[in-house]
Design goal:
This protein is an alpha/beta fold. It has eleven helices and six strands. Helix 3 (about 75-80) packs across helix 11 (about 270-310), helix 7 (about 190-205) runs antiparallel to helix 9 (about 225-235) and helix 8 (about 215-225) runs antiparallel to helix 10 (about 245-260). The protein is elongated.
């Protein structure tokens, strides 16, 4: 076997076991495994303020932790923010301890590969992204025998430009280009829900099944409070954070308003009316509080990501 073929075959063998006794050795071990998985230019960058990146490659970025406690979600957020505009680069995280459940969930949402290394240098994938990377390296087969030197062939004319474009698009080795994000107003869902509820609030008091109390004007005005609030919120909203729990909570608050304003529904008895009103109102308030906590958590995560992308200094090992 020639020297070149021997080097190619050696890439498919797992890295030699090496003791990991410091964060420098942990970074070199992670870089060796990344080269084994196909990131051939991966190299450790010890001792610098790199904003959360310890191993760099043209196609991937790696973060290595040499610590005893479990890795949490903020540490993965700093790695995500350090990637910046290079969204085509794969993110890999290495630790000698473990991962918190919130960190595993965040990695699944953002395609971050999680690995745990042993003190002898062995590497174990933790989530689906990590297993995909390690299994892809095992499926590659090294060359067993040197190939004979091919005979020179006469030059062929270049294929048409369209054919070249198609061949590049179908090449599985090329990273897929991210689709351009769709442009839409962040508050469009809020405005749409408010508009639908406003139409119902205007039409329902005029129907035969609705007997307004104390009057049609008061009933319509009461039922328009939540829709108008939603439409105004949709106009001023700029962030586009999750809205599902808040929308359901406001809808559940709208139900008792319509129930209380319809005298026909009181014919079922005061006990039934009171039970439905209190249950719907309590569920709506709980969902509104939960939605507020979700939006606050997302705002905090965005703040952490922005600070990391701005050049956060490297944490001590």
């Amino acid at each position: 076997m020639s020297t070149d073929n021997a080097q190619r075959a050696g890439r498919h063998q797992p890295p030699a076991r090496r003791p990991v006794r410091s964060w420098q050795e942990a970074e070199r071990n992670a870089a060796a495994w990344m080269r084994h998985w196909g990131y051939h230019d991966a190299a450790a960058r010890p001792g610098g303020a790199d904003g959360g990146v310890d191993v760099r490659s043209a196609r991937a970025l790696g973060q290595v932790k040499f610590q005893a406690h479990a890795v949490g979600r903020p540490e993965l957020q700093r790695l995500f923010g350090a990637r910046g505009r290079h969204m085509d680069r794969q993110l890999l995280f290495f630790t000698g301890s473990s991962y918190a459940s919130t960190a595993v969930e965040y990695a699944a949402e953002n395609d971050i590969a999680l690995f745990v290394y042993a003190l002898d240098g062995a590497m174990t994938p933790v989530n689906a992204a990590a297993r995909r990377i390690s299994s892809a390296a095992r499926k590659q087969k090294p060359a067993q025998t040197p190939h004979p030197t091919p005979k020179p062939q006469p030059a062929r004319p270049a294929p048409p430009a369209r054919q070249l474009t198609l061949s590049k698009a179908s090449d599985p080795s090329r990273p897929a280009e991210p689709a351009p994000p769709r442009k839409h107003r962040p508050g469009s869902a809020r405005f749409a829900l408010g508009f639908i509820l406003a139409v119902v609030a205007l039409a329902l008091p005029a129907s035969d099944s609705f007997v307004p109390r104390p009057s049609r004007t008061v009933a319509t005005a009461a039922m328009l409070v939540v829709p108008v609030l939603l439409m105004v919120w949709g106009v001023v909203e700029k962030t586009g954070r999750r809205f599902g729990h808040t929308a359901l909570g406001l809808f559940l608050l709208q139900l008792p308003v319509g129930w209380l304003c319809n005298a026909r529904l009181w014919q079922g008895g005061i006990a039934l009316t009171t039970t439905i009103t209190l249950a719907s109102s309590a569920a709506g308030v709980l969902l509104l509080r939960y939605g507020a906590r979700v939006r606050a958590a997302e705002a905090e995560a965005e703040k952490l990501t922005a600070s990391s992308a701005g050049g956060a200094s490297r944490e001590p090992r």
